[in-house]
């Protein structure tokens, strides 16, 4: 329970202030805000409220989208915001390919990370490359396997860049065990949720832990064995979860985290 | 054009007889039927009509689902049907995991293929393992990368088992080039279609060649370099395609095949 972090996307219909208050009320010690939530009240006010509630920030979501216009400036702002929130982790959703050449798209992403890295290091913020599920390649990320993300980390060879591992995006990978072991020392974050057997929607159907087919305890054992002992974010993009009554959403999150993740 | 095969799923609202007639009328020399279409008229009548239309059968879709009840008997029937149709290729959709242990699920699949293989060899039918997109793991297949399919082929080490490579299921893979090269001599079939950038549905949103983000000519060059020179199936699971007027569906298929695949 001391490792549970509530990613704000799990309660995306609530304001950031409401998410902060709910964490405090239900005994959650960490929060993982998205930047569109920070924008509601600004980073200084957010920091003040998070501190007042006794919470710590596990990561900021998200920088990336390296092929988009203005990415460089926006990513530097994301680094500044992460530092201002007192977290050492910025999640990178690396962005889709701009054309049909995936190798070229991956080179653009790697070059973008390399350019951002000194600025992140100056601010004491680690960049966490989050490989997204291959079904999200068209609009969200051309980095779709943990192996590909680790290839980039190893080439850049800097402790300021690592990976964020989300069970939803990676559980299907037949190389998963080897790649998590390879990620040892480079794990910037760990996200839990679940995959429904009958998933039809590529974006909005992520499930509560225990409702799907991912062997979460086995996954967590691999993460443990790789030496990661930081906060674990519950991140669930799903309007059906967002529509739950506040008490039910919070109690279910806490109960499932304790019962299904370890 | 002489390599174009129409997979019956591209016109799933039509009867098998209508698909056969359309191929003949629009100059397509190959057909790839699904078994639920064969069942409409039986395999002998299907064979007679396919022969009469001057077509050849590129493959039969599909065997597999190795963890399902009755799989062994059903897969032997699929081998018999493929042989009766005069095709040497049976596509295997290997089936989803029955529990949360993916390694165990993959072992069950491999054991099922190994048991089926002697029967397939007796009938002159090659088994083509088709890795499906990782988003289809829950209900369709636990074999989700070309690399995983080739691992199985190499362990079984028999010319009677190979892979069917569909651009839609595999294009995202950062290891794709290496794995297609590795597949040399084991490619049982090649399927084309396209991936829409804004894909939302995990099953029914496959696109016509040229409408998506897959670099099809580059993909085909890799398949060529691996030595595959057999028929190329157009397989599109998409109700919006099925609803096209007959003439438009057929002309578009032929035109896009000639313009977008090579």
Automatic annotation (TrEMBL), chains A, B:
Annotated organism of origin: Solirubrobacter deserti
Keyword Isomerase: yes
Name this polypeptide is given: Sugar phosphate isomerase/epimerase
InterPro entries attached to this UniProt entry: IolE/XylAMocC-like, Xyl_isomerase-like_sf, Xyl_isomerase-like_TIM-brl
Keyword terms of this UniProt record: Isomerase
Domain Xylose isomerase-like TIM barrel: 20-259
Single GO MF annotation: isomerase activity
Coiled-coil region: none
């Amino acid at each position: 329970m001391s490792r549970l972090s509530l990613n704000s996307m799990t309660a995306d219909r609530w304001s950031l202030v409401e998410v902060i208050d709910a964490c405090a009320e239900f005994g959650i010690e960490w929060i993982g805000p998205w930047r569109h939530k920070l924008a509601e009240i600004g980073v200084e006010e957010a920091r003040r409220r998070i501190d007042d509630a006794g919470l710590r920030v596990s990561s900021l979501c998200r920088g990336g989208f390296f092929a988009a216009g203005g990415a460089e400036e926006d990513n530097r702002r994301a680094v500044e915001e992460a530092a201002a929130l007192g977290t050492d982790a910025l999640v990178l959703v690396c962005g889709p390919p701009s054309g049909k050449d995936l190798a070229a798209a991956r080179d653009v992403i790697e070059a973008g990370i390399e350019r951002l890295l000194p600025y992140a290091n100056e601010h004491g913020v680690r960049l966490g490359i989050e490989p997204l599920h291959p079904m999200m390649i068209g609009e969200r990320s051309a980095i779709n396997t943990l192996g590909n993300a680790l290839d980039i980390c190893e080439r850049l060879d800097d402790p300021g860049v690592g990976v964020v591992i989300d069970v939803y995006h990676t559980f299907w990978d037949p190389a998963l065990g080897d790649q998590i072991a390879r990620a040892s020392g480079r794990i910037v974050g760990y996200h839990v949720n679940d995959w429904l057997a009958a998933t039809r929607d590529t974006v909005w159907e992520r499930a509560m832990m225990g409702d799907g087919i991912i062997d979460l305890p086995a996954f967590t054992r691999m993460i443990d064995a790789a030496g990661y002992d930081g906060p674990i974010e519950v991140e669930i993009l799903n309007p059906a979860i967002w529509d739950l009554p506040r008490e039910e959403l919070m109690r279910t999150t806490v109960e499932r985290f304790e019962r299904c993740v370890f």
